[in-house]
Here is the input.
Amino acid sequence: MLEEIKARLETSVPGCHPEIILNGSPSGQHSLQIDSAHAVEAAMFLRDDAELRLDYCSNVTGVDWLETDTSPGYLEAVYHLYSMERKHGPVVLRLRTENRTDRAHLPSLTPVWRSAEFQEREIFDLYGIIFDGHPDLRRILMWDEFEDHPMRRDYVEPDDYEYEPTAHDEVLSKAKQHAAQQPD
Amino acid sequence: MDQKLRIELSKQGIVTTTLQELYNWGRKNSVWPMTFGLACCAIEMIATSMARYDLARFGAEVFRASPRQADLIIVSGTVTKKMAPQVVRLYNQMAEPKYVIAMGACAISGGPFKQGYNVLKGIDRYIPVDVHIPGCPPRPEALIDAFMTLQKKIDQQTLTGEGRPRHLDPESPSEFVVPRFGAHDLEPPNNPEVFHILNNLDSCEAGEVDAGGD
Here is the structure.
């Protein structure tokens, strides 16, 4: 089915460069990555096309990919789409930012699927992706004064390991590190 | 007064008491908790207050919806860092004498969510806790036990001297620092006036030994 959607996207929304990302796990839930510049147009097509009618966005989540030797690293927003009308799905849609720092922008799909509103806010809060065109982009879980993005892989948590009565493994090493830094 | 004489007098129909006993008896049997729940422990707290477990038997029949009218705050559930300032502020707004029960693993330490980025590692970092209840969530019986423990604690307080309650001691504070939302964490991360750490590293080493023994 995904190949079919890809072919139809290529003809209907020229320039959106759909690409199938294979999922090697037993679930085999492959996904479709599209160019973020044409994302809104492609999303409108997926929603309104008579055969697809993907009218329901059930879940939006983020993924953080750190930089490797070959890639500068990027952030991803993953949309899970279903059709209530045609009773099929999910179709998994992926959008990638250019990098993890200054060009972490994506177009918001909230104008297409209203259910994405809070979840895009959550991704903005926890991963730091800025959704252009979002009607109300504020932090939703952390407080407004907070500056970090806790779900990023390089998030540095505050050092509050002063009292760990049952520490083991990673927590034990962090508590020891904390204790070593304290002046006597 | 001699206990034997007192018993003898009561047999003759003469009741003797002290001001302290009368005062504590009145206080311990009219501890009104605040209508304040945070998470799943709150469901157990609600169950405790209803007919089957009936916390009213212990003089806590009314849950007051205002901190001004409450004597006890039951911190029932995970305290997120976003919620912590509100919890401290509610506690500050309560009138003395006031007590705190930290109910469940989350309220006493952060519990299963301890290493979460938005979870406070125990409410005792900001306010003085009278009774801690372990459990996830604690059963209503455990909350009743904690309540009786609190009553015993109130009963043992004296009117003067060392063991007097906080509201009879002009030196001790009744309001505590409300943490502010910082750029990376709450500021301050704990209130050293109420949060005392004893031998953190020692307990860590002990934890290591335990893990090795398993």
